[in-house]
Amino acid sequence: MTVLPSPAARRPAPLLSIGIHNQVLLVVVLVASVAVALSGFVGDAPNRLVSGRPIPLWAAAAILPTTGIAALGAALSAACLVRPSRPLHCAVAVLAAALLLLVLAAAGQAASLLAQSAKPASRISLGPAFWVLAACAALAVGDALQRLGAGIVVQLVAVTGLASGMVLLAASGTFDALSLAREFEIRHQVFADAVVRHMILVGASVGAAAAIGFPLGVATARRPGLQNPVFGVLNILQTIPSIALFGLLIVPLSALVAAVPRLAAYGVAGIGVTPAIIALVLYALLPVVRNTSVGLAGVDSAAIEAGRGMGMSPGQIFREIELPLALPVLLAGLRIVTVQAIGLAVVAALIGAGGLGTFVFEGLGQYAVDLVLLGALPAIFLALAADFLLQILTTILRRRFAL
Amino acid sequence: MIEIDDVTKNYGDRRVVDRLSLTVPAGDFCVLLGSSGCGKSTTLKMINRLIAADAGTIRIAGEDIGTVPAEALRRRIGYAIQSIGLFPHWTVEDNIATVPRLLRWPRARRRARVTELLEMFRLAPATYRAKYPHQLSGGEQQRVGVARALAADPELLLMDEPFGAVDPLTRDDLQGELARIHRATKKTIVFVTHDIEEALRLATHIAVMQEGRIAQLGAPLDILEHPASDFVADFVGRQGIGLKLLSVRKIADRMRPGEIAEGEPLSLDTSLRDALSAMTTRRSDRLPVCDAAGRRVGAIALADLVR
Fold first, then answer.
1. A185-400 architecture in CATH?
2. Interatomic CA distance for residues B82 and B165, integer angstroms
3. Cα four-point dihedral sign A135, A138, A144, A150
4. Which residues of chain A does B145 touch, with a Cβ-Cβ cutoff of 8 Å?
5. Where are the domains of chain A?
6. In this predicted structure, what is the pLDDT of residue A284?
7. Whether B88 and A324 lie within 8 Å, measured CB to CB
8. What is the value of ipTM here, to two decimals?
């Protein structure tokens, strides 16, 4: 096949045309610069309960990481002006990833420097400039990968590269002087339990939601008459505020256990894991049922008619045609639900379900921001990881079935 | 092969098929012709029980289809539809082998059959076997659709406007191939269309349908020359009827045996319409004719077309 050159390709391309080619990156760099200029990179507080004195990047970190961050920032802003190409996007991704790791290292180093001259009770926490800078660097990595049209493999490489960089930094003790690390150190035994409990809450509720929601979704796809009542109820459930739903479940469950005391032996109680999982399942049902229903409805009716006409049984049509063709949409629903449940499970700590929310509410009670972060950050990472893994699974399935 | 006896189908108050009887002999190419809503598709789908008849009986090879489990019945009957309905997540090979797989043919036999069918439809097996439907053109998809219908070598093939959605050139190719396959395999085919030209080209018998009944059943030439009613005459078209007549008659009927003419010969089974077209484009009123083996056997002249 011959391809006619596009008008743009026919024009001789100038080596370097000045102009803003990447607005997203430019905004990201600007926001990061403003944050660094105006707010503290770390905060220095005499104890964990008072807020710290903000210290800007250049005063907190050593000269080497500061210049490094500035140089990478300058390189990224220069990249906005260059005509886009694959090598450029690759370079931006690598530079932004380096920036992210450098920002982390700089924060750790700044904390160790400050800790040398501070009292043992004092806390060095991460400031707004750090968070904005780190978030901007991560955004720049994501944006560059997207512009690159990165496939699963490249994305996996990027994520594992960044993650192993962070793990290396943490293992080498870079973060030890940070207040977040010190909160972790105090609670590292409880922390592991909380993470596991959190994952159990999410796994059990998503599993149960799939087990209930999937047949319900099939039923609504088969009988359109069911759609209004089913989706009506599920929509209402979705609008109940999560804290209220957790609270509302206490009364009926307590009454149930009082009526059937044997249930208590199975761990059923008005507070704790039982109401948490029930609430999470109720929230998860709508996306699961809706995506199952929509996925099945989206299967080409001609394929089903052909299957019937060739003598496939209804079960064969369901297993061999409808299910595989609806699977990507089904998995998308599961992905939404998993990410949603990881966030909502934090709130479940309020009714004694445990999990990462325990730190959040403890931290809120003590006005200890670092303790809140100790609960919130792992929850965010869990959600991102779950989203990423399920996305990869969906992509693989799509490719496997060539959809 | 098929005996449809006094069959009726209602949708609510509407009677779509009205006490219809039709016998299709083995090896016949029977076209159900009519405009939309005349009940032709419903009639076709009652033959493989995709639609249940309200009254009447249908027998295939003497056996009442109501006595056979629907799925077993359908696996014995090839079925091809306009929207094709290839399974998008299966390769061409898996698509074609659907019914053989349902019938639990061994793998080697399925594979050999797929190769045979791809060759029959002039799709190179090595190239096409592993492709997915979305990698095929519309015409190729429909070839695979018809190949899939023929996979388990059914005695009977039902086709519901199979070429309705492809472009005219491709449709012409596909019709030619179907005609060739019908001649080669002697399958009984029931074919639904609203396209009179398609019906004239393919059918051995045409059943013109009107409001759930058969308005006329006959050979293509019969229907053109002796329409049974004004409806049939209107439907097959008073306009251009001469050209339609030419399209159902073959050179073999009008040839002057033994005579000679200059130029590239036309084959005996070329329609008179195509002969007229060849004469017009070649600016010649006399063309040579050859038989299937390519031997020159005579000539045809412009005057022979209007005899």
1. Orthogonal Bundle (1.10)
2. 6
3. negative
4. 306
5. 15-177, 185-400
6. 93
7. no
8. 0.82
